[in-house]
Amino acid sequence: MDEGSRLIYGILLLVLVGSALFSRRIPMNQMIKMFLIWIGIFGIVFVLIEIGSNFFHDEQEDYTVSTDTIV
Fold it and tell me: Quick one: which of 33, 3, 5 has its CA closest to 18?
């Protein structure tokens, strides 16, 4: 998935959370605090997924390089 698609997907997830919080009709300061917490949760998940994908991608490259034979 390219960067533009990821950005749109992330924005849509935040809009979904924001609309759910807004529909509860809670006070604005509590809503902002909850929205920031959700942004943090999505940020942590995003970072963990990126670290995991980079870790497994690097591991596969090392394995491919180590299986080459020298003639």
Answer: 33
AA letter at 48: L
What is the reported pTM?
0.51
Q: Cα(7)–Cα(25) distance, rounded to whole angstroms? A: 28
The distance in angstroms from the start CA to the end CA of the chain is 39
Residue 39: exposure state from Cβ atoms within 10 A (0-12, 13-18, ≥19): middle
Is 45 strand, coil or helix? helix
- The residues, any chain, with a CB within 8 Å of residue 38's CB and separated by 6 or more, are 14, 17, 21
Q: What pLDDT, in 10s, does the model give residues 15-27?
A: 887 788 778 888 8
